[in-house]
Amino acid sequence: MPPFSANILNARVLAFCTALLILLLAIAEPAMSRQSQDLMQRRAQQVNPIQTSPMDMSGVSGSFYFLDQFGINLGMTRLSGDAIDPATYRVGPGDLVTVVLTGNQSGTFRGLHVNPQGMLTLPNIGSVNVSNMLIGEAQDAVNALVRSTFRDTEATFTVERPRQITVHVTGDVPNPGSYFMPAHTRLDQAVLPAFFEKDADDLRRGAVRPDMSRMNVRSPAELPNLSRDFILNGRFAFRGVEIRRSGGETVQGDLVSYSIGGLLEGNPELKHGDVVVVRKRQEFAPQVSVSGSVMSPFTADYKPDDTVENLLRIAGGLTFDADSDRIEVQRFTMNGMQRITVTDPSDFPLLPNDRIVVGFDAERRNNFAARVEGEANFPGVFPIERGVTTAAELLEFAGGVTPQANAPAARLTRNRASWEPVPDFLNPFAYEADRIRRGSDQLLEGFQYLQLEDSLGQNIVHIDLSDPEQLAQVRIYENDVLHIPRDQQSVFVFGQVMNAGFYTFTEGVSAQEYIRRAGGFALASDPDRVFVIKAGSYAWLPPGETTLQSGDLIFVDRQPFESLDMVRENEFRRREMRNRNIQLVMTGIATITSVITAYVAITR
Length: 604
What we know:
Elements: H1 3-47, E1 63-67, H2 69-75, E2 96-103, E3 106-113, E4 119-122, E5 126-129, H3 135-147, E6 153-161, E7 164-171, E8 177-182, H4 187-191, H5 200-204, H6 228-232, E9 241-244, E10 250-253, H7 255-261, E11 275-278, E12 287-292, E13 298-301, H8 308-314, E14 322-333, E15 336-341, E16 355-360, E17 369-374, E18 380-383, H9 391-397, E19 410-413, H10 433-438, H11 444-456, E20 460-463, H12 468-473, E21 481-484, E22 490-495, E23 501-504, H13 511-517, E24 525-533, E25 540-541, E26 553-558, H14 564-603
Parallel strand pairs: 1-3, 7-11, 12-16, 17-21, 22-26
Antiparallel strand pairs: 2-3, 2-6, 4-5, 7-8, 9-10, 9-11, 12-13, 14-15, 14-16, 17-18, 19-20, 19-21, 22-23, 24-25, 24-26
């Protein structure tokens, strides 16, 4: 090969190798650059772990995800799982929000923090002032900002974590001071921690909201929560809680109307810097009350703007059986008590110490029922007229008894628990054993017997369903239960017999025959003490005074049981008595002998 041709070949090979090297370097450079960037980013994260996540904004129709970890970290200082009302909540500095874009451009901005100037900044888009805006208004403002950057894109604005506000609770509360609360906190939530010592410091410094159910009471006199009893116990004036706002406005809170009637206007939302003043109730402060046929009767402090309609709303309204034409106000005047019928509750102002009483409609209260169970043709629950419906009518409702029923052994159970809230003068079954004992002169055994009667109760009535006269006399009350037992065609023999148990009932057979079937009398039996215990009534009768029926019980009593100590004691007493009798006879003989001797001596 000529030298010129060899030089040309070497030049071509060198050019090819050079081009290949340049191509390899071009391919490897981006990878090395990415590795260097990743290494730098990891080193930066080791120095400062709070970083802003990257955001892909390339392309008009691209999507991105942005997470402001710094904003999330700020929001974690005060967590609150309570829901906020978008219709009333106003955005302000310190809120943690999320903005989601949908449409031509999709993306998510999480953990955005509203700065102290009320500005909300969307990275690579811009900033907008959302201070003191409702959530819907803030969304409109953010929408306008987004549309100025992206076409056909909608923004959704939500509050992830509400900001903290400072509320000052003062007055006569056990723990007055400043507390950190969520921005949507209502009055009752701010007042509650001021009555407790535990976790009060956490609330003051804005720590995680404590579990109110685990708070310790400051003293035994303090109740552990703002329950209905605590609010109505008269210690604090909860109808006149004063809320002083930074602009000079004063708002009155009424926790009585909120806790009893569920009226939110009595439990307003608090604002940053509010001062809540809770005072103790004055000893002779005027009161008002609502009683009768209302949902929640109560007694509370009087307010000058009270009306009958307002207090009925606090009481939860009228009950089903209320008579709206029988609403009256009882008022004491110089001439005595007046009873004023209220025709228009909305236009009836109240005076201090007025009492509202709502009557009831007796016909609407007739919702009573009694139950029949056992051997009835149609056992179940039946409507009755309290104290008017008879046992015969109730049995007729149930379709009468089945052929298998033991009619003489039926019983009626009075449900005394249903009358517990009723005053004694309305309760036909009121029985106060302690009052009976108080005026008695009985011995200890008599009191023990009364205690036994009280424990057995008076809620059982024996009914012989085969006796029409008794069925017509017995009256039925609400929650009564008529038990109709099945006739097992047997007699139960027990006590001092050889084989106690059930024996087939035979018409006309005597008690002695049933005892013979039971193996006869046992060794310790007392044949003179045999009783027939009647089914249903459990009355004890001698066998000669009753006719045996199916379901009856035959009881054979035993001779008195004596222990060894009692037997020895009886023998000792018999010997002692015999010795005394002998001494008495000897003393008598000696006396007679002395008299005879004296007589003989005198006559000589």
